[in-house]
Amino acid sequence: MPAWPRSSRVLACLVAWLLIIALPGTLPAEMQRWEIVPGKSRVSFETSNTWSTIVGTSESPMGQVELDVADLKQPAKGTVTVTVNTLRSWRGSWNKDIWKALDAPHHPEISYRIERVESSFPSLTENVDVTLSIHGVLTIRGVERSASFMSRLRQRQGTLWARGETYLRASDFDVPPIRSFLFYDTKDRIVASFDLILNRGQAQAPAQAPTK
Q1: pTM for the predicted model, two decimal places
Q2: How far is Cα 197 from Cα 177, in angstroms, rounded to an integer?
Q3: Which range marks the domain in which residue 37 is found?
Q4: Could you give the CA distance from residue 125 to residue 70 in angstroms, rounded to a whole number?
Q5: Dist CA 137 CA 144 (whole Å)
Q6: What pLDDT shows up at residue 178?
Q7: Is the torsion defined by CA of 12, 16, 17, 19 positive or negative?
Q8: Is residue 14 part of a domain?
Q9: Per the structure, how many domains does the chain have?
């Protein structure tokens, strides 16, 4: 039986290799960028003293998350940022106390950097909650601390809806007690939570070669 020419053997190997990488499950994950929608999203914290509960809420969080909704086991990353002066309480006179405790003039933003996500299911389906453990780094008053949020994620009508919360200690971030009603200081324990709507980000157009 005659041997194949060397060029034919090389071509056959190349075709076989292309077929292998095209098989299902071997393609790279399709990472999507999802952007937080201000006005439809909010970030809150809750603390208390002997006589009252103080809740500060911002409806202007910003940021984006990159993940593959078809394969939640793939690495995910993202950032969420809140401007301190957008935090509001139900009692307007407390707002300046909150901003002062967070040292807004020197540290105008609170940020959270997502580093790792653990999912209870491998993928998202429409209108079904998936439980997530989100791990990352939270920065308040310029102090960075590891923080994990127990969360739920749902896909609905082309958007993502994410909700979650965690417990923090104000002293870990050098945040002093807020002295308010009847001059009682707030407790060290804080509940931080988020309720976010994210839209699919626009794909970036490829850069055009400069014209001569």
Answers
A1: 0.79
A2: 31
A3: 33-200
A4: 8
A5: 6
A6: 82
A7: positive
A8: no
A9: 1
